[in-house]
Design brief:
One of its GO terms (molecular function) is hydrolase activity. By secondary structure, the chain is an alpha+beta fold. The protein has 15 helices and 15 strands. The protein has one domain: Glycosyltransferase, CATH 1.50.10. The chain has a 3-stranded antiparallel sheet. Strands 6-9-10 form a 3-stranded antiparallel sheet. Strand 9 and strand 10 form a beta hairpin.
Length: 471
């Protein structure tokens, strides 16, 4: 089933019935909603120890309950670990869809990386994610989501693109190739191990650079196109599946956003910033591995080229906020001023290492995207935050509130984000894809592991950096 099929809505009453416990938001009688220990997919002692340690510092019972439910949700419910030919292999579903997104799978295990040194099984699990991502990239670098079974034919088999068995969806998104590099680089830095970075991984990196080069579209549209028979406009790509035209200026085209919605102007700015960071991380790793010198040079050159193009084309002058980053551009001078909740977003660029929080243009952009000048910024009785076309108007995504908190240096703002997220769970004990600005019980996706684990990461970051905000 596709993501849109799972736009579930729920109410507090239905939650109370399903858990068999009355809800009490003063912090008493909160239901047990975490999967029972004997039914969890994977158990990490380091994660359990972290939960216990953090909960002792959280004054608000409901916030502690949420952390205990959300932080381990990826391990509890979405991972499928095994050894294949003597190597770790980890398939990670996104939650309510049995498919592995390159982006989501990285984000879902990311908060566990600092715990690997004290938990060998956890380290193996994450190594298995890297191995599985390598396999997926080599299968098709243009695909965003994959099945565990390479022979499975999915519901989107009739999409007008080079669809293959084993692919869940083939939406080209720059970040799909950046996130696996982010995971590999952090794993390498924290463990020193090069076990996952064999010839297959290096071949996957070659495909990353090749794909980015193709999507600079200097010699035509390249090999990728996508069309779908659908009533959802954001699932279709105009002009024979290539999207609206761009002027080749050195930026990389992304046919889709990280929301899996089609771009309007194909040069997606936050994704291009992410690509610069990822290409340099790749080059550093390949250098340490004595990898192909030509590939290393090409990765560095491409990063420099994209960075230069961003300086020339990503910044526009806003009458209220001054110089800001556009969300999308086309190289002809057209631009789209907005932000989407899904990461990479303009708001999240410091989180991904694309720039420091102190960058003055980022700070101007931050003010813009967290205001009514962003058409997808919503404020209501249930909270304030960024949404996007994927879930519709007036629907706020917890991802954006989490990113706001993770990129903030202001105690009051961080506390507000924590309180809004706590109130938005609608008694379920988990984060959701989105919720209505005036009614948190009107939400989409009951089981969305990316949001759950990222919320856990936010609480853990607050615990490590600003513990007083939890007490």
């Amino acid at each position: 089933m596709n993501r849109r099929t799972f736009l579930h809505q729920s109410t507090l009453a239905s939650v109370a019935v399903s858990t068999g416990s009355a809800l009490n938001f003063s912090g008493r009688d909160l239901p047990t909603v975490r999967v029972a220990a004997n039914q969890r997919n994977f158990r990490s002692q380091a994660v359990e120890d972290t939960i216990r340690m953090v909960r002792t510092q959280i004054k608000t019972t409901e916030l502690g309950w949420l952390f205990e439910n959300c932080f381990p949700n990826t391990l509890d419910t979405t991972v499928d670990f095994s050894m294949v030919n003597g190597r770790p292999d980890t398939y990670v579903i996104t939650g309510d869809i049995d498919a592995m997104w390159l982006r989501d799978s990285t984000a879902q295990v990311w908060p566990y990386l600092p715990l690997m040194k004290q938990d060998e099984p956890l380290r193996q699990l994450i190594e298995g994610v890297i191995n599985r991502q390598t396999r997926n990239i080599r299968k098709d670098p243009y695909a965003n989501a994959f099945y565990k079974d390479d022979t499975k034919v999915g519901e989107w088999k009739d999409d007008k693109t080079d669809m293959k068995p084993g692919l869940h969806e083939r939406k080209w998104e720059i970040d799909s190739l950046c996130y696996p590099i982010r995971l590999a680089y952090a794993y390498w830095k924290q463990t020193g191990s090069v076990a996952p970075f064999d010839a297959d991984w290096q071949d996957a990196m070659r495909l990353v650079v090749q794909t980015f080069r193709e999507q600079q579209r200097k010699t035509g549209n390249g090999p990728y196109k996508f069309e779908r028979t659908t009533s959802w406009a954001t699932d279709g790509v105009p002009l024979s599946g290539y999207g609206y035209p761009v002027r080749p200026v050195g930026l990389i085209c992304s046919t889709f956003r990280p929301s899996d919605d089609a771009t309007i102007f194909p040069f997606l700015i936050p994704a291009n910033f992410f690509a610069v960071t990822s290409l340099r991380q790749m080059a550093d790793m390949l250098t340490a591995l004595n990898g192909n010198a030509t590939l290393i040079a090409d990765a560095r050159a491409l990063a420099g080229e994209v960075e230069t193009a961003l300086k020339q084309h990503a910044v526009v002058r806003h009458p209220r906020f001054g110089n800001v980053y556009a969300y999308e551009v086309n190289g002809f001078g057209s631009y789209n001023l907005m932000d989407d909740a899904n990461v990479p977003s303009l708001l999240a660029m410091p989180y991904l290492g694309s720039m420091p929080v102190s960058n003055p243009i980022y700070q101007n952009t931050r003010k813009l995207v967290l205001s009514q000048d962003n058409p997808f910024y919503f404020e209501g009785k249930a909270g304030a935050g960024i949404g996007g076309p994927h879930a519709g108007m007036d629907m706020i995504w917890p991802l954006s509130i989490i990113m706001r908190g993770m990129t903030s240096t202001d105690d009051r703002e961080i506390r507000t984000c924590l309180n809004t997220l706590r109130a938005s769970n609608a008694g379920t004990g988990f984060m959701h894809e989105s919720f209505h600005k005036n009614d948190a019980s009107n939400f989409t996706r009951k089981w969305f592991a990316w949001a759950n684990t990222l919320f856990g990461e936010f609480v853990l970051k607050t615990f490590n950096d600003r513990r007083h905000l939890l007490s």
